[in-house]
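Listing S7. Sequence submitted for prediction.
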Amino acid sequence: MNVRRRRISGIAVTAATALGLGTLSACSSDSSAAGNTDKFDVVASFYPMEYLAEQIGGDHVNVTTLTEPGQEPHDLELSAKQTAQMGEADAVLYLKSLQPAVDEAIAQSDVKTKIDAASLTKLEDHGNVEHDHGGEEHADEHAEEEHSEGGEHALDPHVWLDPVKYAEIAQGVAESFEKADPDHADDYRKNAEALAKKLSDLDTAYKEGLAKTDSKVFFTNHAAFGYLAERYGLTQEAINGLDPESEPSPARIKELQEEAKADGVTTVFYETLVSDKTAKTLAKDAGLKTDVLDPLEGITDKSKGEDYVGVMEANLKALETALGAK
C-alpha cells in the first residue's frame, strides 16, 4: 500500500554495501514483504508487537516481523533485507529499549509512521524489586547489570505480560493505525475493541485465579515478570536480571535456596527461548520442581498455546499450581 516513492534508507544501503550485495532490488521480491502489497504494510519488531498489529489490523494489514519464531529477541541483529523492508513499510511497531539494533535502525529509517509501544503506557523500574532480600550489595550488583540492558533509567520493557498495560498499548496502536490508514479506521476501532475484551477477560482470570494462594513468591529465569507480579500482588524473584543470558553469582543461588525454604516456594520457572540449565541446577540443589513460565517473546512449537492469549492462560495455570491457588 506504500504510496510513497520506494526508497531505501541510508543504513540499508550501508549494510548492503558491507555485505557486498551491491543492490537491494531483489530483497523485497517476496510478495508478502513489507512495502510490496496493496495492504497497510506493518513491520513489527517481535511477537507481542506482531500480535497487536494482526489483531487490530485484521484483513487490512500485511505484517512482517523482524524476530523469527524461536529467536531470542533481546540480542537481535538485523539483516540488510530486514532494514530495507522497514524503510519501505507504511508503519513500524516496536518497543523501544528492548532491542537496541531495532531502535538504531528505526531512528535512521524514513518510514512515515513509527509506533513506539513504550510511549503508549508507563514503563517502570523493577530493577531492585525482585532483589530486595539480597541486601544492598546484591541489589547494587543487579541494578548495574540491568542498567546495561534497560537504558540509562533501567526501565523494565516487559509490559506486554501485564494484560492491562498491553491493552493500553493496543489502544494507542489502534489510534495510530486509524490516523495512518483512515480508509479503514472503523475496522481498526472495532478490532481494537474486540482485543480489549479478550485482554479484560484475561485480566479477570488472573485476578480470580491468583487471589488466594499458599505463596505469593515465584522464582523465574530472568526478570520478565515484574509487571505481571505487581498487577496481581505477587513477588518475582529472578535468578538473572533483565538480561536472560546473564549468569547469577554463587551468592545469588545460595540466597534463592534460603528464600525458597522461607517463602514456601515449590517451583523454579524457566522459559522456552533460553537455556534452562541454571534453573534446573537451582531446582535440583534446593529440592524444587521446574516448570515453564513463558515471557511470550516469541511463539514456537514448544509454546503452550497458539497465540498471546493461549500462552498467557497456560502461564496462569502454571502459576496457580506453583503458588498453591485455592
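Caption to Listing S7: primary sequence and predicted C-alpha cells for the chain studied. Residues 185-209 form the longest helix (25 residues). DSSP finds eleven helices and eight strands in the chain.
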